[in-house]
């Protein structure tokens, strides 16, 4: 099976893989997964102790390990930690290119999203049996977020629970930020956020809210605009999609 890195790094990947192969041929035995991961972490942190490295896991490419950083960046390292490769790793199948780096990111995002408290979200529950959950970073003043909000009833009718997290694009402390605070602090959050997305007014209120925390979380998860949707398996769907497209992605169409 062949693998493809981003074009800019293709030659480097070939050179590093060739060097790794020559070292492995003369090695005594094969490193166990735990030993290799520990060796890589030790070597990298010896050079840069402050590296925000959160995981070292076997990569899809034999002889390499994927290094996961706090901001979602993925690097690849040889088993001895002697070489690093930047860029996404693609598997070339018979029909398409498969981004294996995205698999690593999706797993981490799924764990993060699953660990969030739904009490900190504005939740539009599914009608009847819940078949799927989507978590959306939304901006109240974003036109495409408002369009997507119109699709929420259709998603709910098809068994999809919609969970909103706050993403004020104008930043913490902005006028848009205040609107998010009003929605999250409202007695009836669903009505409040719907009114605000419709350009209507709500009672300005404040409370112990998660808006700033959500904004910071969006940066760590790599949200690049609004709306930004995460599925339960960690897949990231940027931008607006009509309900029928969401249902297709969720296997519910």
User: Which CATH class of the largest domain is shown?
Assistant: Alpha Beta
Q: What is the CATH topology descriptor of the largest domain?
A: Glutaredoxin
The sequence of SSEs as H and E is: EHHEEEEEEHEEHEHHHEEH
Name the CATH architecture of the largest domain: 3-Layer(aba) Sandwich
Helix percent band: 25-40%
Low-confidence parts, pLDDT < 50 over ≥5 residues?
1-32
What shape does the CA trace take?
globular
Domain module count: 2
> What Rg, in angstroms, do the CA atoms define?
22 Å
Word description of this protein:
It is a single chain. This protein has 253 residues and is of the alpha+beta class. The chain has helices spanning 10-25, 33-47, 100-114, 143-157, 175-185, 189-197, 211-221, 243-249, and strands at residues 2-5, 53-58, 64-69, 74-78, 84-86, 89-92, 97-99, 122-124, 132-138, 160-166, 228-231, 236-238. The strands form 3 sheets. Strands 8-10-9-11-12 form a 5-stranded mixed beta sheet, with helices on both faces. It has a 4-stranded antiparallel beta sheet with strand order 2-3-4-5, sandwiched between helices. A 3-stranded antiparallel beta sheet has the order 1-6-7. Helix 4 packs across helix 8 and helix 5 packs antiparallel against helix 6 (189-197). The chain starts with a strand and ends with a helix.
Which properties best describe this structure?
single chain; 253 residues; alpha+beta; Nuclear Transport Factor 2, Chain: A; Glutaredoxin; 2 domains; five-stranded mixed sheet; four-stranded antiparallel sheet; 8 helices; 39% helix; globular; disordered N terminus
């Amino acid at each position: 099976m062949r693998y493809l890195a981003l074009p800019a790094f293709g030659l480097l990947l070939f050179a590093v893989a060739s060097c790794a192969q020559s070292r492995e041929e003369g090695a005594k035995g094969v490193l166990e997964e735990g030993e290799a991961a520990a060796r890589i972490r030790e070597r990298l942190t010896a050079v840069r102790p402050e590296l925000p490295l959160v995981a070292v896991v076997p990569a899809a490419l034999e002889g390499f390990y994927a290094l996961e950083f706090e901001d979602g960046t993925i690097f690849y390292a040889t088993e001895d930690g002697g070489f690093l490769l930047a860029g996404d790793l693609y598997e070339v199948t018979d029909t398409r290119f498969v981004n294996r780096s995205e698999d690593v990111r999706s797993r981490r995002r799924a764990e993060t999203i699953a660990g969030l408290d739904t009490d900190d979200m504005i939740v539009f529950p599914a009608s009847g049996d819940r078949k799927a959950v989507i978590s959306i970073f939304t901006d109240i003043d974003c036109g495409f977020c408002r369009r997507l909000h119109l699709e929420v009833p259709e998603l709910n009718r098809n068994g999809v629970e919609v969970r909103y997290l706050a993403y004020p694009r104008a930043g913490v402390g902005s006028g848009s930020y205040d609107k998010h605070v009003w929605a999250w602090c409202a007695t009836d959050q669903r009505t409040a956020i719907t009114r605000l997305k419709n350009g209507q007014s709500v009672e300005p209120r404040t409370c112990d809210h998660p808006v700033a925390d959500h904004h910071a979380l969006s940066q760590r998860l790599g949200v690049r605009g609004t709306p930004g949707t995460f599925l339960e398996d960690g897949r990231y769907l940027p931008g607006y999609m009509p309900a029928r497209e969401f249902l297709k992605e969720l296997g519910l169409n």
